[in-house]
């Protein structure tokens, strides 16, 4: 289920992922702790605020898991087995394979054919594919609609990102931008990771965070 559009390599906060996938904060953190699903851009110290940052692939994978659990009633225990089997078969991510479901059991299509192979028993089934990439892309578009007047500004709201400072009109914490900046990313490269942001947004976030550091 991979996308060929490089602009889909985006970074998302926990709050974003909750909105885009329908999962809860408790589920995300529990799965991270247990090694079932770890964010791609996570700090080693998960106690640091905004230490969990998810990629577009992460969001698609988590949305897929959410659909499997809620719409197809696949148990978490079975999903853990699926995750282990996918790794064993050489898939790096949930988005690397098209998943199918029959009777609450998950299957995937063989890479070299149109056959659908059972994860554990090898039985074959012809079933509808679960493909959530376009669903996630549409959700992102809806979530990130903002006015031009919000470009290059920082704001705080009680119910947005737990009252963290965010880029105006988004749920992207300025602290997340600071971490990319500290890692050596240029403004242009950060915009590549966050395609909905302008260079003004990124520069404002960096300036804001540098101001906080100086006043600390």
TL;DR?
The chain is an alpha+beta fold and 216 residues long. It is 41% helix and 8% strand.
Verbal overview:
This protein is α+β, with helices and mostly antiparallel strands and 216 residues long. Helices cover 41% and strands 8% of the residues. A 4-stranded antiparallel sheet has the order 3-2-1-4. It has a two-stranded antiparallel sheet with strand order 5-6. Strand 2 (105-109) and strand 3 (116-118) form a beta hairpin. 28% of the residues are buried. Residues 1-9 have low confidence and may be disordered.
Helix/strand layout:
Elements: H1 14-21, H2 25-33, H3 56-70, H4 76-88, E1 99-102, E2 105-109, E3 116-118, E4 129-130, H5 133-143, E5 154-155, E6 166-167, H6 174-182, H7 187-193, H8 199-215
Antiparallel strand pairs: 1-2, 1-4, 2-3, 5-6
Helix pairs in contact: 1-5, 6-8
């Amino acid at each position: 289920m991979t996308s060929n559009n490089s602009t889909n390599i985006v970074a998302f906060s926990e709050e974003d992922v909750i909105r885009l996938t329908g999962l809860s904060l408790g589920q995300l953190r529990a799965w991270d702790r247990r090694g079932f699903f770890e964010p791609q851009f996570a700090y080693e110290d998960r106690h640091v605020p905004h230490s969990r940052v998810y990629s577009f692939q992460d969001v698609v994978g988590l949305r897929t898991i959410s659909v499997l659990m809620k719409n197809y009633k696949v148990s978490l225990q079975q999903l853990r087995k699926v995750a282990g089997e996918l790794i064993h078969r050489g898939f790096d991510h949930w988005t690397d394979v098209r998943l199918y479901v029959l009777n609450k059991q998950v299957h995937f299509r063989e890479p070299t054919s149109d056959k659908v192979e059972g994860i554990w028993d090898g039985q074959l089934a012809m079933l509808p594919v679960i493909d959530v990439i376009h669903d996630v892309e549409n959700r992102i578009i809806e979530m990130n609609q903002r006015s031009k007047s919000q470009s290059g500004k920082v704001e705080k709201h009680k119910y947005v990102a737990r009252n963290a400072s965010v880029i105006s009109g988004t749920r992207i914490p300025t602290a997340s931008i600071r971490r990319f900046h500290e890692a050596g990313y240029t403004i242009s490269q950060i915009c590549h990771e966050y395609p909905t942001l302008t260079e003004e947004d990124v520069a404002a976030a960096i300036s804001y965070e540098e101001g906080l550091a100086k006043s600390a």
